[in-house]
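Reopening this ticket.

The earlier resolution said the output was attached, but the attachment link was broken on my side. Pasting everything inline this time so it's all in one place.
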Amino acid sequence: MLIDVTLPQLGESVAEGTISKWLVREGDVVKKDQPIVSIATDKADSDLPAPTGGRVAKLLASEGQVVPVKAVIAQIEEGTGASLSVSPGPPVSIPPPAAAPPQAPVAQAPVAQAPVASARGTMGALATPTVRKVALEHDVDLSSVQGTGERGRVTKDDVMRAAGNHEPAAPPAADVRAPATPAARAQQLAQLINSSGGFVPPIPGVGFGAFKVPAYRPNADDKVVPFTRRRRITADHMIYSKFASPHVVTVAEVDLQKASKLRDRHKERYKAEGMSLTMLAFVVVAAARAVRENPSINARVLDDAYVIFHDINIGVAVDSPDGLVVPVVRRADELGVRGIVRAIDDLAKRAKSGKITIDDLSGATFSVSNPGLKGNLFGGAIINQPNVGILRMGEIQKRVVVVESPDGEDQIAVHPVMYMALSYDHRVVDGVAANGFLWRVTEILEKAEFEV
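Inline output:
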């Protein structure tokens, strides 16, 4: 009996995946739950296990191919042993995209345009930043491409198919074509980012208006480092976030005298239990409490509305062999310091060992970034989409502060102090709400009333 191997839903909002590498060949005998293929998505990479034991009858997707969720990518003949015969039956393959129907004028067929509008929303065609980049590189207008992915999503294959079917017009004179290309790309990118028009953004690597990015001139001592897949995803995410969200940054100074003493009293006990009691844990606890009291910061923007989440899932930026990732501490407001420490330690260890999963990286409703211990006073982080806020920690340094003595007199003291910066999306978060949130985080940290 042939068992279909389908691409599963690899985390929230993931609609497609790329076949990175087949770990088996047709005819191989596999065991149930044995990894058979590596799948790459815009969140993380993971190995897909065999749903049953048996012989691999057919591989239906090639390495490098982008396939939608639920698509059949392989078939396994159920059973074990060398006596199994391969009987693949009728050919099965990922269905090719349907040909785009002829477009009728909007005035004559407004109803026919409605499904496309609902699937594409106010941001133009439904596509990932990587697909948009490929479309720009091949001069393909995404609005004219029929998407074959989930909910009409345009995939890389759709773009390449459109690029291959496009018959280029006769090239104009060189002196006319050269200046027209950047303008045409700027108009296309503007349409992708802001369908209402009126905004023409700069194009990375091309320029803006009269300014043109100078061409790179190779030097024998230079080192050209190709983007890794993770770095490309990060770059696309950051560009999208800066274009999509109007960032506002507000900064608070936090006196960590009480929190530092509390940590010093308990850090050896935590260390003996194999955990690290860091200031990051206190910040995550304080942020989770403040988010519960200021729910507008725990939201995401939809096409023409926004949703305030009930659960508070804090994404915590950690380093991994492939670059920065943001695993999620779920329902962080229900955890105390010990629970947060345990969760962060576990996520950080698995990220550094390359064992982080897509589910670990999905579902953040707010984020906390800790750039490290060396050389940063404070900085405004780029919002982790689709969140509307991110809190960035600064370096903890001893500074002179003014404190009030028990008798009410002001005194000079030296305390550990940290600057924290909140970046927020001004589309849905007002300054009053953002400042109220940051003020509350500061108050919680300075009082240091934590159960450790």
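Reporter confirms the inline version is readable. DSSP finds nine helices and 21 strands in the chain. Residues 82-93, 96-123, 166-180 have pLDDT under 50 and may be disordered.
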